[in-house]
Design brief:
By secondary structure, the protein is of the alpha/beta class. The chain contains twelve helices and 14 strands. Helix content is 38%, strand content 15%. The strands form four sheets. An eight-stranded parallel beta sheet has the order 11-10-9-8-7-6-3-14, covered by helices on one side. The chain binds NADP nicotinamide-adenine-dinucleotide phosphate.
């Protein structure tokens, strides 16, 4: 595995982060990744040198299950060997129905949630704490001041911001600067080879402000592995895969532009004797404007091994550009998504 600085922070992370959204997630009658599978996947991360693990308070059913699985696994290991990120914002149902203060980025909710997160993970600090979304109801000053205190108290090393508009990110950075508070050093947008124009402005802010970018769903939920085909309007994939379990899969991850990009990724994969998943991840890792650490998911250890192999893949400038350009039709019209 190769390691690099997480943006301008002093923390070194593997060039791939492992995402644990599906740990303990109930989809219909299926628990997507149960405790035993979760621990096998984390073992595989350790074997491949992946030291960066992403979770959130709300991952799993009930919420908190993903953090619990990770905490149990970490118990037998040296905490200092791992960089652990979690998140706060969404309604937390870990103790029953969420109440009026069980969501958002107010002081009360953040303070309660950080304690639950640390408890479930069995650690006294997080390397990285993200706001999962922007909270329009709470003044950003209150959120930033509360997060700043967590940094000062040593409960959190760095702050991160997940999906939001470019102006919201800019406003938060400006407020922390003028108020002398810890700022967001890491961002977590939806960003993959078939979904870039939509976050272009947000990524420009990240580049300008030297923020680390950790894209989520870097394989478009599995679409960019090339295991889905289309039959008319239908997207057909393997039984039991996310595309089979999740009714919103097509709407969320698949687009006309995506099929075009995937075709080019498949061609490049053949040229470099790699898989489409590896080429998709490498394309992200090779971003030049900012440090980019994809947060990849995997349901099986074989998938994880394949994904970790992206570190060994070399793409030429010309191949990267072909993937960049694949989203445009010959006439120059951009496909929507
Ligand atoms: N901040 C946010 O709002 C947000 C939102 C979403 C995710 N995230 C983070 O990002 C992480 C990754 O998201 P994601 O799971 O959507 O990422 P992804 O890497 O785009 O998709 C992962 C899924 O693709 C399939 N897959 C992965 N590798 C494969 C391979 N080599 N061959 C075939 N199939 C493969 C697996 O699903 P199947 O086997 O079921 O096909 C796997 O669960 C999450 O765990 C979470 O930590 C954050």
């Amino acid at each position: 595995m190769e390691y690099h600085s997480l943006g301008r922070t002093g923390t070194q992370v593997s060039k791939l982060c492992f995402g644990t959204w599906r740990f303990g997630k109930q989809s219909g009658d299926t628990v997507e990744t149960d405790r035993e599978e979760a621990h096998e996947l984390l073992d595989a991360c350790e074997e491949h040198g992946i030291n960066f693990i992403d979770t959130a308070n709300v991952y799993g059913n009930p919420n908190g299950t993903s953090e619990e699985y990770i905490g149990e696994w970490l118990d037998d290991r040296d905490r200092e060997d791992f960089v652990i990120a979690s998140k706060v914002y969404f309604p937390f149902d870990g103790w029953g129905e969420p109440g009026p203060n069980d969501s958002g980025l107010g002081r009360k909710h953040i303070r309660a949630q950080i304690e639950g997160t640390l408890d479930r993970l069995g650690t006294d600090y997080l390397d990285l704490y993200y706001i999962h979304r922007f909270d329009e109801e709470t003044p950003i000053e209150e959120t930033l001041d509360t997060l700043n205190t967590l940094v000062q108290k040593g409960k959190v090393n760095y702050l991160g911001a997940s999906t939001m508009a470019a102006w919201q990110l800019t406003k938060a950075l400006w407020k922390s600067e003028v108020e002398g508070l810890a700022r967001f050093d890491v961002t977590q947008p939806l960003f993959h080879a078939a979904y870039r124009d939509d976050v272009a402005e947000y990524l420009d802010v990240c580049a300008d402000q030297e923020l680390a970018v950790c894209p989520y769903s870097p394989l478009a939920g599995g679409f960019l592995t090339g295991k889905y085909e289309r039959e008319g309007e239908e997207v057909i994939g393997p039984e039991g895969a996310r595309g089979d379990l999740d009714e919103q899969f097509s709407e969320y991850y698949v687009s006309e532009r995506g099929w075009q990009v995937l075709e080019e990724i498949r061609t490049v994969a053949d040229e470099v004797e790699a898989t489409p998943a590896q080429v998709s991840l490498r394309w992200l890792m090779d971003q030049e404007a900012f440090s980019c650490t994809p947060i990849v998911g995997a349901r099986t250890t074989d998938q994880l091994t394949e994904n970790a192999g992206a570190v060994e893949v070399n793409l030429s400038n010309e191949q990267r550009e072909r993937i960049d350009e694949a989203r445009y039709e010959e006439g120059g019209r951009r496909f929507g998504h």
